[in-house]
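Sanity check record (used in CI):
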Amino acid sequence: MLELAGPPVAEAVYEELKAKLTHLPYVPHLRVVRVGEDPASVSYVRLKDRQARKIGLSSQVDVFPEDTSEATLLEHIARLNADDGVDGILVQFPTPKQIRQQAVLEAIDPAKDVDGLTPVSAGRLWSGQEALESCTPAGIMRLLRHYSITVAGKEVVIVNRSNLVGKPLAAMMLRENATVTIAHSRTRNMAEVTRRAEILVTAVGRAGFITPEMVRPGAVVIDVSVNRVGRNEQGRDILVGDCAPEVARVASALTPVPGGVGPMTVAMLLFNTVKAAMRRRGESGTVPITTGSPVE
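Expected output for Bifunctional protein FolD:
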């Protein structure tokens, strides 16, 4: 079985971005906004900021207290939209309950939407136009390309219908000429549906949800979820995906958890930041990819 490890693919993206940055007469600037002190959000934001700086981007994190009002956050986003020195804006989700995610997404300038989640970005993706694309799905597509896994003509089943993963990934797969089925909590005969997949993508968030009986022999399986199922003797979180361990005996290729899709999400965020900076300055916004296929 082929292990679809994310770190070497992410590192390839970073090397391409660093090469591109040496030829730009400016330094793209990423602004990350975090509201509150949710431990996972603190960790994710720190990782994104550190990696951005590591490859040579300018990055700043704006932190607001837990009780920040929606109006205050939207006013801050408006200032970032108007700031010509800011190329990419990312608001870390989840936000506290008093702040609506949809209101935040609608407030971000689509030209600076490096998370690829605004309604305009989603609409452009689905209508076949160039867009800043949702990072996790874009990372999955890059991962498949890196390991020479062809999508065209394949039967793809995505067990997720969210705006973050399932819907944008379906659009990307369709663009690459796959036949796509989206399964979800109301899907009947789930195992029958998933067994059709030559490429199976799961982002359910339930450890052990995908069992070997649900996987077509020889299928490529992309496990997006990271589920915490306890702590080890050293006190560290034990992390697993949606797939039961036995799925590895059936699949021809499988992403590890951790170390599969996760690193790709951060890589594509930084890819989008460079792309946004170039597009805002009237350049093509296409960052060269070693395979010869730009992530557009």
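DSSP finds nine helices and eleven strands in the chain. If this sentence no longer matches the regenerated tokens, the check is flagged for review.
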